[in-house]
Amino acid sequence: MTDNFAILLLVMAGAAFFCRAAGFVLMRVMPSSPRVEAALRATPLSVMAGIAALALAQGGLAEALALAAVVGLTIVVGSDVAAALLGVVVVAVLRWIGV
To answer: What DSSP character marks residue 72?
Structure first.
């Protein structure tokens, strides 16, 4: 860690809080259209897709198998949280055995 870690952490936390607070303020002031609502509903999925694509591009077989396990569990169980936890476990086990 660097000497500036605490300062950097506070600045990042402040920026994150400002972005969230600004979003709430703007959503109160601006009227919401169906198009905006659809974009807001699609945002979490697009963020997760971006993270998964980056992991696949930079990862290897362990990441690909973990993603397949996550997709499979999401379809079967329907729980995003359980699927994400399974993905972490699959990557950890595969790396532990040397894949």
So the answer is: H
98 token code pair: 């040397």
Which has the closest alpha carbon to 51: 35, 76, 70, 36?
Answer: 70
pLDDT digits over 38-49, tens only?
887 887 778 878
Judge contact between 99 and 61, C-beta under 8 A: yes
Report the C-alpha gap between 26 and 95 in whole angstroms.
Answer: 44
Domain ranges of the chain: 44-99
Packed helices 61-77 and 80-96: angle between N→C axes, nearest 10 degrees: 150
pLDDT at 26: 84
C-alpha span between 76 and 83 (Å, rounded): 10
Q: Mind listing the pLDDT tens digit for each residue in 60-81?
A: 888 888 888 888 988 998 888 8
